[in-house]
Design a protein that fits this description.
- It is found in: Cell membrane.
- Its main location: membrane.
- Keywords: Cell membrane, Disulfide bond, G-protein coupled receptor, Glycoprotein, Membrane, Olfaction, Receptor, Sensory transduction, Transducer, Transmembrane, Transmembrane helix.
- With 314 residues, the protein is mainly α.
- Helix content is 74%, strand content 3%.
- The chain has a 3-stranded mixed beta sheet.
- Helix 1 runs parallel beside helix 11 and helix 2 packs antiparallel against helix 4.
- It is globular.
- It starts with 10 loop residues before the first strand and ends with a helix.
Amino acid sequence: MNVSGVKTVTEFILLNFPCSREVQVLLFMLFFVSYILTLMGNGAIVCAVKLDNRLHTPMYTLLANFSFLEICYINTTVPNMLRNFLSEAKTISFTACFLQFYFFFSMGTTETFLLPLMAFDRYLAICRPLHYPTIMSSHLCMNLVALCWVIAFLCYPVPIYFITQLPFCGPNTIDHFVCDPGPLLALSCIPTPGIELSCSILSSLIIFITLFFILWSYTLVLRAVLSVPSAAGKRKAFSTCGSHLVVVSLFYGTLMVMYIRPTSGNPAGIQKIITLFYSSVTPLVNPLIYSLRNKDMKAALKKIQICTKISQRE
């Protein structure tokens, strides 16, 4: 096929979750409630850290940034997904599709950078407690957070640019609820093994390098904790790290299934379920994981709740 200069596709159709109208409405209500709860849960953590002076430490600063990232992350996909549940057309423009692609993957990459930073913070707090205040200062913490965001947002412009230059002559139907590289590359008029392999290698490098750093940090933490003589000290250390390890397991587990091998090798249904899990489910449960296992966070949230009730009475 001669495809030189051909790019007739100006919009894509995101199939979302094909089902009857009644089920679409039910799914809309379910995901809408989940979306609101995610915003409220992560927003509460951000407000708690900002308003409670006791939480103005690197550990909680990282947690607040992580919760803010989760708010941004779900807003790259969920609003459009909700719109598609009630829309007949389910279309997204060519430009909007690749913008969603860019922000979705940039936010996800930022998360893979913030999680190792949080692990490093726990390593310093447990293994280097005397030097922790001087090493992990608030200034350094904010600089490292900013670096995570900047590097993450610089990872995907080049791959996305090359994908936008591919000829898309139709069909333009993406069997997904987000503009994911696998379904997008499958719509190209020409084979794209090089780009697909490059995307897979880039994702694999990001995932494995950051995961290795997390495992290395917690190996040192575990060795330090096991050397603590008191059982109370061990429980406190494990409690401090437990929430983070649960979040890491949920996030990296789904990412590795999805992006380690070329994405077109996964069936469409599996892609949707896995993407839905790490893009919508984990941002929903993360506030519960962190707040329920952290006494300081629970106290700060109760303080906000009390202040809110008082202001409402006034």
